[in-house]
Design a protein that fits this description.
With about 475 residues, this protein is of the alpha/beta class. The protein has three domains: about 5-270, Spore Coat Polysaccharide Biosynthesis Protein SpsA, Chain A (Alpha-Beta Complex); about 280-355, no CATH class; about 365-470, Jelly Rolls (Sandwich), CATH 2.60.120. The protein has helices at about 40-45, 65-75, 90-100, 120-135, 185-190, 205-215, 220-230, 240-245, 255-260, 280-285, 345-355, and strands at about 5-10, 55-60, 80-85, 110-115, 140-145, 155-160, 170-180, 195-205, 230-235, 235-240, 265-270, 295, 300, 310, 320, 325-330, 335-340, 365-370, 370-380, 385-390, 400, 405-410, 415-420, 420-425, 430-435, 440-445, 450-460, 465-470. The protein has a six-stranded antiparallel sheet, with no helix packed on it. α3 (about 90-100) crosses α6 (about 205-215) and α3 crosses α7 (about 220-230). The chain is globular and about 75 Å long.
């Protein structure tokens, strides 16, 4: 019998270990790391269809419109999108979703899944979820354990009971959670055959989880309950109240609940999984060729072995010659080169770039907004050139600037431009000038994307030089609102 499952997609991480493709402004779950869809889209698709309700998503303010846009591209409707005022780790996020779901159905089954993992065999994973559902309905907290394929030091482990079966197709008795081990301990655990990787995927009823928080983490339950109770709706999003949320402990669901609860079971899974926790994992999951190389369409390997060469920009051809065990990733504004054995140190590079004030540490070249996206092409002392892409039917806010004027040249589609009290249509190869201080708006009234080149001139060109008067996306003031 198929049991109805309510997916919860956790979508708030920064993904610094996959820099430069993943950055704080556009983390890895939204990027196309493997395949034609983003990791978030793959997760949403994997947990949709028969037996699955529309997903609930927990994310941050800056990503709320990206979530809707990527779901819409896969024709998936969300049940709810909860906006965290700030990241507080997984325990508060999961609890908030459970409280919202319990308002309608306390016995509803929740499947908690990170949105940035790779699970190639979606059918096998859905079957494993269904196999664990009856135990979860009975009140157990189910965690999913991955059959280890190597002595990995980057994952936490789950120790099974002596009489448990590590490759069973039903939930097994869990003894304890084990922290990330050193190399010797990881090798011992792999050899024992009695340990599974901790995937960070969980299944339980909403009421069972809430009861667990009441018993083991009341300091988390109180402020999260208040944040949900005082939440408000904003354009279909649910904004958790920032006041109570500020008092929520920063703690993972493993530490808050799973390592303390007694009603635990583990569902073994062996059909393939990766958290893509580094470029070495991407190399492995992408499928190296007979020489062990993985290359993108704009990369070439000559006499290389066991190497990842990846260029994200059609104007940047990446060539490796005589390389072994090397990772090289190029974007339009940054290049990473590392030995594959040092892949986990990429976050050190991000920290070093932050220290020196490099915008590449956190800001992606393409800046995504609810109406589309833009990228800076040239930046000078008192000027900047951007390419701006506006989705069909979308509109920027009615705004003005204190420090810059703008010149817009439409190169694709048609723009409706309002300057003060005058509105006009600007077609391909036509242009318009926006004087400093003028109240203006840009819209795409057409059925196809509109693209224009913007030339800014002035004493200050920062994105926070925006005064919004009207905005269909209710973003308020600030660079993104």
């Amino acid at each position: 019998m198929t049991i109805h499952i309510h997916p919860l997609l956790l979508c708030g991480g920064s993904g610094t270990r996959l820099w430069p493709l993943s950055r704080k402004s556009y983390p890895k779950q939204f990027a196309k790391i493997t395949g034609h869809d983003s990791l978030f889209q793959q997760a949403a698709t994997r947990l949709s269809g028969e037996g699955f309700a529309p997903p609930t998503v927990v994310t941050g303010n800056d990503f709320r419109f990206i979530v809707l846009e990527q779901l819409a591209a896969k024709e998936i409707n969300s049940r709810a999108v909860l906006i965290e005022p700030e990241g507080r780790n997984t325990a508060p996020a999961v609890l908030a979703a459970a409280l919202v779901l319990a308002e309608q159905d306390p016995k509803a089954l929740m499947l908690v899944a990170p949105s940035d993992h790779v699970i190639p065999d979606a059918a096998a994973f859905r079957a494993a979820v269904q196999a664990a559902a009856s135990r979860a309905q009975a009140g157990d907290l189910i965690t999913f354990g991955i059959t280890p394929t190597r002595s990995e030091t980057g994952y936490g482990y789950l120790e099974l009971a002596v009489d448990a079966d590590a490759v069973a197709t039903t939930p097994q008795t869990l003894v304890r959670f084990v922290e990330k081990p050193d190399a010797a301990r990881a090798a011992d655990m792999l050899a024992s055959g009695n340990f599974l990787w901790n995937a960070g995927i969980f299944l339980f009823t909403a009421e069972s989880l809430i009861a667990a928080f009441r018993a083991h983490a009341p300091d988390v339950l109180g402020p999260v309950e208040a944040a949900v109770r005082e939440a408000h709706s904003d354009l279909g999003f649910t904004r958790l109240a920032p006041g109570p949320w500020a008092g929520v402990p920063d703690i993972s669901i493993d530490y808050a609940i799973m390592e303390r609860a007694s009603n635990l079971a583990v569902m073994p899974y062996s059909a393939g999984w990766s958290d893509l926790g580094g470029w070495d994992a991407v190399w492995q999951e992408t499928g190296p060729d007979e020489s062990g190389n993985v290359t993108s369409s704009h990369a070439t390997a000559i006499d290389c072995t066991d190497t990842l060469l990846r260029s994200e920009n059609a104007r940047v051809e990446l060539v490796g010659i005589g390389l072994a065990d090397i990772i090289a990733v190029a974007t339009s504004d940054a290049v990473l080169v590392a030995h594959k054995s040092q892949a986990q140190r990429v976050k050190e590079a991000v920290a070093a770039l932050k220290e020196k004030g490099a915008m590449q540490a956190t800001q992606f070249p393409v800046d995504h907004r609810p109406w589309g996206w833009f990228e800076s092409l040239v930046v000078g002392n008192r000027f900047q050139v951007k390419r701006i892409h506006v989705h069909p039917g979308a509109a920027l806010s009615l705004q003005s600037h204190h420090h810059r004027s703008e010149h817009w040249i439409v190169v694709e589609g048609t723009a409706k431009v309002t300057i003060d009290d005058k509105a006009q249509l600007i077609s391909e190869n036509q242009s318009v000038y926006i004087p400093l201080g003028a109240v203006h708006r840009m819209e795409n009234p057409g059925k196809v994307p509109m693209v224009l080149i913007e030339v800014q001139t002035g004493s200050y060109l920062g994105e926070d030089d925006i005064i919004r008067y009207e905005d269909v996306y209710a973003r308020g003031q600030g660079a993104k609102g």
